């Protein structure tokens, strides 16, 4: 189980709640940037985090690659790869890094799609949602051999009924 959140914009309480809920259950907890917290904050112990366009602490990396649940994952905030204009650049850099997933923030809206064999996922925002879903949310990804089971949850940890997906997983 991989937990993905993003765009908390100073709201450390929800980041801590998600961390506490999943730290002993998840293989990875990932924050896709715009936390507006210090990179040295102890909240990041056990969380993979990247720098967003609203993060001014240079202690955060712009991108990171990790493995969880036997999946190689590319993580970034998204602004450096022009995600506002499509996912082609993000998908290309995920391929360059030999990753099966590209997780990103920045847009504050849920996105779960397979592009060029890469799962591209935006978990929405845990503090400032935008777009069709005015719900503070995060995502859980459960990879299987054949698919990615994706569940978006609100900050009360309840599944959002219209945001539950099973997407096919490409064979390597």
UniProtKB/TrEMBL annotation:
<comment type="similarity">
    <text>Belongs to the metallophosphoesterase superfamily. YfcE family.</text>
</comment>
<dbReference type="InterPro" id="IPR041802">
    <property type="entry name" value="MPP_YfcE"/>
</dbReference>
<feature type="domain" description="Calcineurin-like phosphoesterase">
    <location>
        <begin position="2"/>
        <end position="142"/>
    </location>
</feature>
<dbReference type="InterPro" id="IPR029052">
    <property type="entry name" value="Metallo-depent_PP-like"/>
</dbReference>
<dbReference type="InterPro" id="IPR024654">
    <property type="entry name" value="Calcineurin-like_PHP_lpxH"/>
</dbReference>
<dbReference type="GO" id="GO:0016787">
    <property type="term" value="F:hydrolase activity"/>
</dbReference>
<dbReference type="GO" id="GO:0046872">
    <property type="term" value="F:metal ion binding"/>
</dbReference>
<dbReference type="Pfam" id="PF12850">
    <property type="entry name" value="Metallophos_2"/>
</dbReference>
<dbReference type="InterPro" id="IPR000979">
    <property type="entry name" value="Phosphodiesterase_MJ0936/Vps29"/>
</dbReference>
<protein>
    <recommendedName>
        <fullName>Phosphoesterase</fullName>
        <ecNumber>3.1.4.-</ecNumber>
    </recommendedName>
</protein>
<keyword id="KW-0479">Metal-binding</keyword>
């Amino acid at each position: 189980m991989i937990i993905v959140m993003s765009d908390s914009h100073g709201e450390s309480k929800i980041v801590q709640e998600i961390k506490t809920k999943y730290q002993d259950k998840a293989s990875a907890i990932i924050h896709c940037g715009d936390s507006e917290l210090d990179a040295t904050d102890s909240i990041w112990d056990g969380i993979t985090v990247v720098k967003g366009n609203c993060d001014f602490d240079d202690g955060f990396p712009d991108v990171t690659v990790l493995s969880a649940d036997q999946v190689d994952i590319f993580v970034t905030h998204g602004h450096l790869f022009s995600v506002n204009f499509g996912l082609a650049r993000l998908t290309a850099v995920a391929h360059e890094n030999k990753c099966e997933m590209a997780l990103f923030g920045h847009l504050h809206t849920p996105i779960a799609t397979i592009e060029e064999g890469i799962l591209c996922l935006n978990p929405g925002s845990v503090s400032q949602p935008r777009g069709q879903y005015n719900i503070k949310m995060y995502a859980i990804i459960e990879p299987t051999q054949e698919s990615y089971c994706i569940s978006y949850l609100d900050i009360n940890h309840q599944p959002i009924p219209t945001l539950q997906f099973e997407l096919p997983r490409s064979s390597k």
